[in-house]
Every structure is written in C-alpha cells, then in structure tokens.
TrEMBL record:
It holds the Pfam family Septum_form. Residues 30-49 have a biased composition (Low complexity). InterPro entries: Septum_form. Keywords: Signal. This is Septum formation family protein. Residues 1-19 form the signal peptide. The lineage of its organism: Bacteria, Bacillati, Actinomycetota, Actinomycetes, Propionibacteriales. Residues 143-274 form the Septum formation-related domain. Residues 23-50 are annotated as: Disordered.
C-alpha cells in the first residue's frame, strides 16, 4: 500500500500502457465540541511490449483500495463516463543516483513521487491552502510495477480523487483544474460530518452526502516536531469559537467543534486542526 498516502487519507477523514481521454480538463482524530531511465537495446517485439507512458488528464474508475495502492492496472475511460480519478500530472522518475540504478520501489524513488504529486496537486486544484485542507479532494500517485520498470518504464502518475467517506471514493464531476478557486467547487467537494466531532455518531463525509456539521476553518501549527496533545488541543479554542460564531451569522446561540491532530496524523503530514460548525 502507498503508506504515506494511506496515512494521510486516514488522518483527514487530515500507475503502464494507459489510454487517455478528453474531457473538461483537457490540457489548455480526537475532537471536542462545545455549545527507470536506463538505456537498453530492444527488439521490435520487446519495444512493443514496453509499457507506455500514462496520459495526462486521463480518467479512471478506481475504488479506494486501488487508489491507495502503489501501482494500478485499471484502464482509462472516457471522462464523460462516471469516474473517480483523473490524472493531473505525469513525469519521469529519477532512478539513477551516482551512476547506480535505483529500484522503482526504493525509498528514494517513492519519496520523490510522494513530494512531487502533492506540490502539483495544489497548483492544479487551486484555492488557498485552507481551501484544500477543508475539501475532500486528495492527491494519489502511482509508479510502474517492478516488472514494468524492468521492461523500461520510468514514469510516475499523479491523480486527484475525492473521498466520499471513510475508505470510499466519490464520483468526480465538472472541471477539476482550479476547482477549489471557485465557490461552487469548494462547496461540491467540501468536508462535512454526520454529527458533532468527537461523538460516537460522527463520520467524515463529503458535503453532497447527508450531514449535520461542516469543517469551516483550520488551525495551522508551525515547526516539524509534534507540539504535544495539550498544546494542539488548547490551540483551537479561540479560533474555532470565532469560526463557529462566523458560521452562525450573528446568532448568539451557536455551537462549534474542534479536531486536533494526533501524533500519528502529524507524522503523516497533517500539521493543522479542524474547526467545525453545524450545517
């Protein structure tokens, strides 16, 4: 499993030979609530068998398990058909270091992709960092299998998916490039909850599903080391109370909630808490 991705997906509830398609995006937690590029010669038959570079803006119908796997063999489909994944970037792996060829599943190669795809994701979906953290859109990434790499494949593929709920993907609709820079896009893929955070009934869901609470703001933290439970827990009191008041639109009787990052979530990359309000 794509371990870094799987951890991030869990904390926020904080890929050979694929044909492309043309679509709308063709190139142009604890909580509280309160009131390989090696060159080889190949015969024609070997060259024909070599996996092809994935196409940018291709669409796929993946399930959650496929989305968090390091490799995937699902075929591309028309973006006009129901789909749960769209490729937003394709690149070449840097698999040669000091003259030595690295395995496609080596830590260094995997880290390269795990850093590049989230960076390109932010530029693709648009919006602010907070807009991205308050949405259910997530980057996922794939590389060739070891067998495909041995046959000459040396690419990585970055896809965008939307979480519908825990370990479930939502269908993608509309234009995705710059989607979080638009109000309708932020609403379509917003993060909501089935109950107040911290309660037994709480489940994180996309806002197009039945819900009663919505994530309305984030509480960011600086530094690389986990601040400790007490600090991350208390940091949300003021900001989330204010966010709850803003969401109440002037009503003096309002509720708010706060989810702070655990040490495990912090290690997975979630360096922020979430403020919630009834929706």
């Amino acid at each position: 499993m794509n371990r870094i991705l799987a951890a991030v997906l869990a904390s926020t509830l904080v890929v050979g030979g694929l044909a492309g398609c043309s679509g709308d995006d063709s190139p142009e937690q604890p909580a509280a609530s309160s009131s390989t590029s090696a060159t080889t010669s190949a015969s024609p038959s070997a060259a024909a068998a070599r996996p092809q570079l994935p196409r940018d803006r291709a669409c796929y119908r993946l399930d959650y398990a496929e989305a968090v796997a390091p490799t995937v063999d699902a075929p591309a489909i028309s973006c006009e058909r129901p789909h749960t994944s769209m490729t937003y970037a394709v690149g070449r792996l840097d698999t040669v270091v000091d003259g030595h060829l690295l395995a496609v599943d080596s830590t260094r190669v995997r880290t390269q992709v795990a850093e590049t795809c989230p960076e390109r994701f932010a530029a693709f979906v648009g919006g602010t960092t907070e807009d991205q953290r308050l949405s259910m859109l997530r980057p996922v990434w794939f590389t060739p299998t070891v067998e495909e790499s041995d046959a000459g494949a040396s690419w990585f593929r970055c896809d965008v998916v939307a979480l519908a709920a825990d370990e479930e993907l939502a269908p993608l609709t509309g234009r995705l490039q710059g989607v979080l820079g638009r109000a309708d896009g932020r609403d379509r893929y917003a993060m909501c909850g089935t109950a107040a955070p911290g309660t037994k009934e709480f489940e994180r869901v996309i806002c197009s599903a039945d819900h009663s609470w919505r994530a309305v703001a984030t509480v960011p933290f600086d530094g690389e080391r986990y601040p400790g439970v007490e600090k991350v827990r208390s940091a949300g009191d003021g900001p989330c109370q204010d966010a709850g008041a803003d969401a109440a639109d002037g009503d003096l009787d309002y509720k708010w909630g706060y989810e702070w990052p655990t040490a495990q979530q912090w290690q997975a990359g979630q360096h922020y808490g979430l403020c919630w309000a009834p929706s």
